[in-house]
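If you are new to this repository, start here. Below is one unmodified record pulled from the training split, so you can see the exact layout before writing a loader.
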Amino acid sequence: LDFTSPHEVAVFAAAFWGQCRLGEILPNSANATVLAHKPTRAHVSRSHRNKRSTTLRLPRMKTKKSGEDVLLVPQKPPVDP
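And here is the target side for that same chain:
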């Protein structure tokens, strides 16, 4: 993804929101302890296996306190705009 391209940022945002439960990515408080368990821009990186894919690290999840990686991968059209 090219984060300087408005189109690709929109694609990333759609994929991001489509992959996650809102409770895993949006804080319900400004408390520092709560915020420490939510992803930030620092948790987004290129996949080491596929440079066209992006990895999002979720520091903590409802069912998995140790967190999990969400892999956002490109798909062929028409699924992937």
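Two things worth knowing about this chain: The radius of gyration is 14 Å. The mean pLDDT is 78.
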